[in-house]
Design goal:
Helix content is about 40%, strand content about 20%. It is an alpha/beta fold. The chain has a single domain, classed as Dehydroquinase, class II (Rossmann fold). The protein has a 5-stranded parallel β-sheet, with helices on both faces. Helix 4 links the parallel strand 3 and strand 4.
C-alpha cells in the first residue's frame, strides 16, 4: 500500500510558527516520524508540502494515477476555503483522512468550517504530529 501525506500552507514553518498552537517540533521532524511509522507498518509513503492550492490539487491527481491506497491531508488554511481541494478529493475517490495539528473545533469560528471533511472518511484533530500517525493507521486498518 502507498499513502500520500499532503500538507498545505505554512506547515513548512512548524516549530517556528505559533509553537503554542502548533507545537515546537519542526516539519523535518514531522516527516521523519511519518516515514518511520509508515516503514514500521509496512507501507510506502509520499510526503508533500506546498503553499500553493493548485500544487496540492495536482498532487491529489498524481495520487490517483499512481494507484495510491490512501491520502492523509492537512490542508491547513485551505481547509476553510478550498472547494478546489474538496473537488479534487471527490474526483479521485481515494480514502482520505483529514488531519489537523491543533484542535480546530476549539479555535476561531472560521477555523471550525472544513470543506475537506465532506470527502474524508475520518478527521483527526488536536493530536499534534501524533495525529498524522493516527490518520495513517486509520487508512491501513480501514
Amino acid at each position: 500500500m502507498k499513502i500520500y501525506v499532503i500538507n498545505g500552507p505554512n506547515l513548512n514553518m512548524l516549530g517556528i510558527r505559533e509553537p503554542h498552537i502548533y507545537g515546537s517540533e519542526s516539519y523535518g521532524t514531522l516527516c521523519e516520524r511519518v516515514k518511520a511509522h509508515c516503514e514500521a507498518r509496512g507501507v510506502e509513503c509520499v510526503i508533500f508540502q506546498s503553499n500553493y492550492e493548485g500544487a496540492i490539487v495536482e498532487k491529489i491527481h498524481e495520487a490517483y494515477f499512481e494507484g495510491t491506497g490512501g491520502i492523509v491531508i492537512n490542508p491547513a488554511a485551505y481547509t476553510h476555503t478550498s472547494v478546489a481541494i474538496l473537488d479534487a478529493l471527490k474526483a479521485v475517490g481515494i480514502p482520505t483522512v483529514e488531519v489537523h495539528l491543533s484542535k480546530i473545533e476549539s479555535r476561531e469560528d472560521f477555523r471550525q468550517i472544513s470543506y475537506v471533511k465532506a470527502a474524508a472518511i475520518a478527521t483527526v484533530s488536536g493530536r499534534g504530529i501524533d495525529g498524522y500517525l493516527d490518520a495513517i493507521d486509520i487508512l491501513i486498518d480501514n
